[in-house]
Amino acid sequence: MLSKKRRREDRPSIHPHNRYAENPPDFAQLASLYSSFEAFVFFSRSGRPTIDWKDFNATRELTRVLLLHDHAVNWWIPDGQLCPTVPNRSNYIHWISDLLSSDLIPARHGSDDRVRGFDIGTGANCIYPLLGASLLGWSFVGSDVTDVALEWATKNVERNPHLLELIQIRNANDPFSSGGFTSSRRYIINENNPELYVAGKTQPLCQEVEESGILRQAVLVGVVKDGESFDFCMCNPPFFESIEEAGLNPKTSCGGTPEEMVFPGGEKAFISHIIEDSVVLQGSFRWFTTMVGKKANLKFLISKLREVGVSIVKTTEFVQGQTARWGLAWSFISPSKDFISSNTLMSTKISFTIEGLKRQGGAVQVLKSMESFFLDKGVSCKFDLSSFSVKKPATFFR
User: Fold this and answer.
1) Pairwise CA distance, residues 238 & 256, whole Å
2) What digits encode the pLDDT tens for the residues 59-95?
3) In this structure, are residues 341 and 106 in contact, taking their beta carbons and an 8 Å threshold?
4) End-to-end CA distance of the chain
5) In whole angstroms, what is the distance from residue 123 CA to residue 142 CA?
6) Is this prediction's pTM over 0.85?
7) Bridge-partner residues for 167, per DSSP?
């Protein structure tokens, strides 16, 4: 059994491309540069400068100065809105960058090489479009449904003229409107015939919601316009089923409205909507991604992805302080040949234990003993100083 120390060492760390991986935020330096932040900084018992993480005003000001100091982004949100942590949100951006630069699926070919993303529920903070645009020059559509979120996301974009052409804020309730945030149009699924025509066959769309007759909030279908294409979508979904479940982390205060934190059925239901919409829009996105707040939900969601016929599923873990989140990504694009070959090789690796070897035996002696063992069993194997290979079906080891 692994010791607690070993488990801590093995836990995923901040993304290596994250600017805070080697240089965490220096509270003392920030306090000396920004008097508005200095008011929230004090010294802990260990003598290190810190802030009261339960104070929303303190966490909001920290986010503001980090975005300004490290990313040249002007930013603000009103009281009560969800306040993101910059290092954690940067991890998600860099993970998507890894997916896009990998050879898991064939490279995109086109005249415009600028990466284009879609942020589901961008919030008043608009953090992902602002980070993606400022860090990597990506363009974004950020969608939301509340007047406050749409108004302040727009303000945060307009406060940064250098990013203005890269980010569009879209009302998910009325994606074709030219302005304003007051539309309340939503679509309802036909309760008598809850089906969509997809790729030559009919598939039910969110049956558990349909049967209850609840209006289905627009996520991707009905928000993405005809002819649009994106490299990826991303989402920080509402994790909880009720505001009581959401509660407040006793150690932090990041705010958050019911619309940002709560959804009937919690994150499992919301992400299921994204999965269902991805089936309809599989030709419009190279990668679909989302954050997952509960590791226990990953198994259900991955199973659902397999059911709808995705070609690739990838997961990762984001760790920031005491908070852990998981990233889930999938694609309907056929994997590249290199990926198929690599995946096949990985799936045939076998682990086994050889007993009875003398402790003083070196690596060569161990391999020679293994060679003798396999040959004695009639198994073809090859051994030299550079490699050791065995040719036998995996059933041999069962």
Assistant:
1) 10
2) 999 999 999 999 999 999 999 899 999 999 999 999 9
3) no
4) 24
5) 8
6) no
7) 140
- pLDDT, tens digit (0-9, with 9 covering 90-100), for 148-165: 999 999 999 999 999 999
Q: Which residues pair with 326 in a beta bridge?
A: 292, 317
For 265, which DSSP code? T
Residue 361 corresponds to which tokens in the numbers above? 């035996």
What is the structure's pLDDT at 194? Answer: 36
Residues 6+ apart with CB under 8 A from 21: 13, 14, 15
Reference 118, options 245, 258, 243, 289; nearest CA is: 289
Strands (DSSP E) found in the chain: 42-43, 49-50, 116-120, 139-144, 167-171, 195-198, 201-204, 230-235, 285-292, 312-320, 323-331, 380-383, 388-391
**Angle, alpha carbons 55-56-59 (nearest 5°):** 90
Q: pLDDT digits over 4-51, tens only?
A: 444 444 555 789 999 998 899 999 999 999 999 999 999 999 999 999
Confidence of residue 174 (pLDDT cuts 50, 70, 90): confident
Is there a contact between 320 and 85 (Cβ–Cβ < 8 Å)?
A: yes
- Tell me phi and psi for residue 61, to 5 degrees: -65, -35
* Of the listed ranges 106-120, 165-179, 195-209, the one predicted with least confidence: 195-209
Beta strands 312-320; 195-198: pairing state: unpaired
**CA 374 to mean position of chain CA atoms:** 45
Q: How far apart are CA 309 and CA 312, in angstroms?
A: 9
Is 122 in contact with 143 (CB distance < 8 Å)? Answer: yes
CA–CA gap between residue 149 and residue 164 (Å, rounded): 17
Query: What gap in Å lies between CA 384 and CA 294, rounded to an integer?
Result: 47
How many CB atoms lie under 10 A from the CB of residue 321? 11
Residue (of 57, 60, 51) closest to 27 by Cα position: 51
For 305, phi then psi, to 5°, come to -65, -40
The set of residues, in sequence order, having a beta carbon less than 8 Å from that of 77 and lying 6+ positions away, is: 60, 83, 124, 125, 152, 156, 255
Structure tokens at 138: 């990506």
Neighbours of 170 (CB within 10 A): 22
Burial class (CB in 10 A: 0-12, 13-18, 19+), 314: middle
Amino acid at position 363, single letter: A
